Structure formats: C-alpha cells, structure tokens
Amino acid sequence: MIRKKINRDWQFAKGSTSMMSAFMGGPKFEAVNLPHDAMVHEERTPDTANGTQTGYWPGGLYTYVKKMDIPMEWKDKTVLIEFEGVYATAMVYINGELAGSNLYGYSNFYVALDKYLKYGEENEIRVVADNGAEKNSRWYSGSGIYRNVNLLVGSRIHIPADGVRITTLDVSKDSAVVEVCTAVKNITRGKEKITVEVTLSCEGTLVGTDKVGVTMFMEAEELVYQKIALKAPKLWSPDTPNLYDCTVKLYAGKELLDEVREHFGIRKLELDAEHGLRINGEQVKLRGTCIHHDNGIIGATTLKKAEERRCRQMKEAGFNSIRSAHHPMGKAMLDACDRVGMLVMDELSDMWTNHKNANDFAMHFLEQVDTEVERIVKKDYNHPSVILYSAGNEIPDLGTARGAQINRMICNQFHALDPSRYTTNAVNGMLTLGSKMGTVIQDVMSSLKPSGGQEEKKETDREEEGASALNSMMALMIGPAADAFACHPLMTESIEEACQAMDITGLNYLTGRHVLEKELHPNKTVVGTETYPADIVRLWDIVKNNDHVLGDYTWTGYDYLGEAGCGIFYYDGTQNFNGVYPDRIAYIGDIDIIGYRRPISYLREIVFGLRKEPYIAVERVDRYGMKHSQTAWMLKDNLASWTWPGYEGKPANVDIYSKDEEVELFLNGKSLGRKSAGEACGFTASYEITYEPGELLAVGYADGKETGRFVLKTADEKVELQIVCEGETLKADGEDLAFVTAKLVDKDGIENLFAEKKVTVSVEGTGTLQGFGNADPRAIGSYDDNTWKTYNGYVMAVVRAGTEDGEIKVKFEADGCQGQEMVIHVKA
C-alpha cells in the first residue's frame, strides 16, 4: 500500500467533543502537528493521583481532529490509517462513525476507513485519546497521539500493511540468500494476472532482482516467495550496521499497481551455552541498557531526530543494545537502531493478569495478548537490530503454574510467528516468590548473622528501618545477602518452569544466579535483563568470564521522566521511593535527560574496555560529609568539575576511573601520589584532598609508562553564555529538530558547572520551540516555559522545524551575560 504521513494540520482539544459537550459550549481547539504529547503540556500538581509515577503530570481526555479531502478515484481502492502510538486508549471516528479502537497505548494499530468515507468530499478524522484513568503506568506515559500517523492507500490489487517479510536464509562472507515473502491482495471480484518484481540495492547500487507472475483470483490473498542470491554481502552487525533496500512492485502489464519499500540487514544469529550469542559467527556480549520511551524535555513526543540522537548518544557511551522497557518499541527508534547499530530486546508488557496499578493493562491482557504479540512481530520483522523478544517484565504470575503456562504460550507464539529470533522474560525473584518470600528472607538473614547470635542494633538503625518498608530490604539488593537470596532453593523452585520456556533466562537483579544457572541448566544461556548501575564492575566480570552469560542491561542508560526520585540524592532526610513533590525525573541514567553523560557513564565505558584515558569525578564539594539517601541504583553524587568557589581549603573526595594498573593525581603540578586502579581495584582510585582552585590532572600508567591523562580546570566566577547546536540545517517537514544547548563558560571556554543563571530563550521564524529545560530532577516549572535556570551549567532548547523554507533565530539571554543568537536554516 502507498504510505504517507498525515501528521500536519490537526486540531487538538482537552476533553471530550461529544454532542453533550458541544451543547455546553465544547472545548477550545488549537492547531497542532503530530506527533504530540498532551501530558507534557499539562500543569504538574502534587494532587494528581499519578504522583511520582508520572512525575506529577496528570492524565486526561483529549480529542484530535483532522479534515482532509478524499478523491473520487479512491472509491475503488482501500484506505487505512496507521497509528504508531496513542496513549492510553483510542477511539477513532470517521465522519462521526466509530471506525476502530485500541486498548494498548504502546502498540501500532490500523483502522480501515472504506465503510465510512465520503468520496469527492471533505472527511473528518476524529481521535479520542483517553488517559484519564489514573493510575495506569509506573512511569511517565505521555498522552494523546504521541507517535506518527500514516495514511495507506491500496489499489484493486495491492500489498497489505506489513505485507513484506524479508528473511536471510543463508549467509557467509562470500554469499547470502535473501527470501522476500510478499502478501498480495485482490479486493475485486475479477481475476487478473500480475507481476511481482523485487529489487535489492545497497547504498544506491542494484545488487539483486527477481520477477514472478501470479494469477490473482477474485477477493483472494496470496503469499509470494522469492529467493535472491547475493555475492559478497555487506553484513549487518553493531560494528558494521550495513543496510539494504528492498523494493517490491506490483504490475498489471505496464501499469504500476503498488510499491512498497523496506530496509533490512543481512546477518546470522546463533545461540548456545558454550559460545553464547554470535552474530555472523562472532561472539557478541550485550553491553545493554534499559530505556523508557520519553525524550526528556519534549515528553513522549516521538520524532525521528530525537530518537536518532538518543540512540547515537547511547552508542557513543559504549552501549550496543537496548531493552525497550517495558512495552513495544516505536518504529522511529527501531529505524534509528538499525542505522546506528544498536541491538534491541523488544518487550511486550509490564503486567499480565496481576495489576501493578488499578487501571493498567492487566484488565485487558489475556483478551489482547495474541493480538499484541502478532503486532510486535509484524512491526519488528524486517529490523536487523531486533534480536530478542521479551514476554514481560517482573511478572508476579511467573511463580505460579498458570503464569508459567502463559509464558510458554507467549514464547511459543513468538517462535511460531518469527522463528529467527530468541525469547526471554525479565524475571524478578522477589515477585515470583510470592508467599515463599518470608521464608527466603528469614533463611538469608539467619545465614548471615554473626556466630554469636543476634547482632545488637543501634537505636538509629531502628529509626532508619522504620522510615521506609523498602529500605528494610536494601540488604537483599546488593552484596552477599543478595547473592544468597538469588540462589536460594525456593527461588530456583519458583522460577524453574517459567524459565525453561524461554530461549534465554532473563534475570532482574539476580546476578548471584548467573553462574549457578550454568550448573543447574548447562544448555541454557542467561542475560541480566535489569541490573544496578553501581554494580557494573562485578557484573561485567561475570559476563566476560562466562560464555553462557550473554550480557547485562543496566537500569538505566538514559534518564527519564517519571518513577521520580528513585535515584535522587536527598540531603534533607527524604527517602527514595517515598513520593515527594516536585520530583519529576528518575535521575538514575548514565546520560541525563538533555543528553549529557554523568560520571558513571565514563566508568562503565572503562569497565567495558572501550575507553583508554582516565576520568576524574569529584563528589560535590559543597555537600562534603553530608548524609544523604542511598539506594542500590545510585553510585555517587559527583561531577567532572573542579570549580567550587567558596570552598577553598575544604576537603574534597576525588575518584579517578581508569583501566590502568596505576594512576597519579596532580593538583597544580604537585603530585598527590600514585595509587592502584584497574580491574583489581574496581577501576577506581580514590583520593581525599583539599580543594584548591587551579588544575587537577589524572595520569594513567601501565608497566610504568604513561598511557593517558585527563584534566579539570577551575573556571572563573565570571561566566558567559556559550551556544552549542546539534542541527544547524533542518528539513522543512514540520518534524525535524535542532538541539540547542546554552552552557556557562568563562573567558577561556572552561565550563562552570557550579554557577547558576536564569536563561531566557526566544524562537522566531520558520520553526517553533518544542521544549526548553534542564536536567534538574526536582525543578519547578514547565518545559513550555521560556525561562529556566541552568543545572550543572546547562539548559537546552529543542527547536522544531516548520514546513516552509527560511530561517529560525534562536536567542538566549541571561543577567550579567551578553546575549547569544544563532540561526538555523530550514530547507525543503
């Protein structure tokens, strides 16, 4: 079917537009272009039932309307609309008639329009997106039509939606065989002979073609298989993400009936417990991260450039795989992963038959699961980046016989629809234990007590235990207790049947089981589907030294909205996970929500063996010695900064992250001593020194020879604005984005992360301000505001192109600083 986006020129209103609401005056409409996240434009309030789960953004009911002319010549064709994502439920009306609906806010779905269209006239598409049932998500969900909308038109004989499936049947360095399976549909009552033509190309060069003739009987649908042999194929892998284009055309004589284009990659997957995961014959360890679907200060608005940027930044930080948590990944991110070379674990759902929130998808899961599995496979099939399907995340059902049966059913359905990929499920041991939980905890705690009997508790310890029910279980999250918990026989009993149905045993926070699983199930592989960021050194050692352990997915590589506060360093006695306004961000990403890497990201890159130079991380000198909250997801409250005015002569904690066996720290040219680093020391050497402005230098040594250095310099207190832009030329498509950062630097360009300024932005010309803000997890304000404070020295504006050629002028102003302006060019 011929496909085109219809994202432009929609009308948007908060609330219902029913006949009753119209009688009462009705809502006010405003013009919007899609994709559009309605939630991010709502006012955050401490009273919303969503609380920290969505970062205190409320849900709501929203209406989208588009008027479009339907030509008379479409009367003998078929017309569909594809919605790539509408949150949470969607009802689609065509000219006032309900044409289709959807219950799962993360899946793409199609609505057939033929019955409801008026040909040769203007038609109305009306979408009611209902996200008013709070609570329904454990993270920031977004609201409304937050992904692309596409119009599909098929002639009398056409290729249906998702009708081209491309499979690599055989592959080597010298040759490959690609099979193209095309569905062809005849919507007439006549019989007609057609030709199906397939062409394959790579970087614009034709590399293969094939034609077959097919007789299409009345109202029939046929599957046409064509095999094409290729010489010296360019293989797809994370290191070499080579893509091919496949074009399928249908002809009746010389008449072109339909044309579909898909991109694909040629690669071979292999999996076993002795060699792990192999791509094109080479073992690949999954340097993975979990991500949610929002794009920070623009909310859940899913635009191509935003997804590409996020994917690229994660790849540059050392990751080679993404787990879509905890729902199917959008098409724009899948395309980005294909191009960038990022492997994908695509996940089905966060819940099955047990609610995690009163209004979540559990109420519909069993009636919808077959449909949703089919949708995810159709969406993913031609994407070489997708290697794994996850049937669910932390599903309590898994510890029961019925849950194990459901898991087997889902995994089997994935295999039946797509035998080329592998299955897993992200198992949370605490949830699967159910009623056995108390026994396991008691056994673990008893085994760890000193031989003298009950350990005496201090009064302060008792007070802390009472602060939060969750905190009392922290001992089970990391360390010896966590490993004993993970390996308890009752844990094995609880997860055994469910794990046997999946190709790869997926374990959330059960690192202690990774080696044990090899003893219990020598033919199975294991992956850490979710793990603590601060545990990366131990985790990666296990991954490197065990072929059956495929890799690790940290929680999480990129920060996100919602689940607010789980990683915030509170210095006022607040406990994490307790739900405190105005928390808006989880604050546990290696990369913050505007795209800047935090120190743990560089530690991880060193642990992965990808960074040669050392790195300096300084615990906030202004917080030295202050007691703060701590969870297993948090490492240290540190920055790569040596600018702390007012703290001269005060103590400072400095870490050097390094792969080298030895490092040396210099302050203003004076050596503060050499220390051991490298893998034996957790890739970290720690110094407690006195803050003195100037230059802080780290030098790495191997075999006594210098291998690299890293320097921090103190910035002057007088700062100015410096502008950095990603995207100085944009397409006039209404969707392209520029990411413009204003940061505080001194006269020499040294960044000052300590200084703070209110920065005001203005955008004029052929574009609009999509969002403006910083990475502060506790900020007050809206990303629609034009004024934000810098946080850790930065604030960012996301500018969206219009649909006309021209220029966009972006201006930044701050008190005491000279204003800065830049011009972004917009071209068709």
If you had to describe this structure to a student in words, what would you say it looks like?
The chain is an alpha+beta fold and 828 residues long. It folds into five domains: 2-154, Jelly Rolls (Sandwich), CATH 2.60.120.260; 164-267, Sandwich (Immunoglobulin-like); 283-451 and 470-605, Glycosidases (TIM Barrel); 612-713, Immunoglobulin-like (Sandwich), CATH 2.60.40.10; 720-827, Immunoglobulins (Immunoglobulin-like). It contains 13 helices and 48 strands. The protein has an eight-stranded parallel beta barrel, surrounded by five helices. Strands 3-2-4-10-7-8 form a six-stranded antiparallel beta sheet, with no helix packed on it. Helix 2 (304-316) crosses helix 3. The longest helix is centred in the middle third of the chain and has 17 residues, at 401-417. It starts with a strand and ends with a strand.
Keyword list:
828 residues; alpha+beta; Jelly Rolls; Immunoglobulin-like; 5 domains; 8-stranded parallel beta barrel; 6-stranded antiparallel β-sheet; 13 helices
CATH topology of the largest domain: TIM Barrel
What is the assigned CATH homologous superfamily of the largest domain? Glycosidases
What is the topology, as strand order, of the major beta sheet? 24-25-26-27-28-29-30-31
What is the residue-averaged pLDDT?
A: 95
Task: Output the radius of gyration.
Answer: 28 Å
Uncertain runs with pLDDT below 50, 5 residues or more?
452-472
> How many domains, as an integer?
5
Alpha-beta classification: alpha+beta
Shape: globular
- Total strands: 48
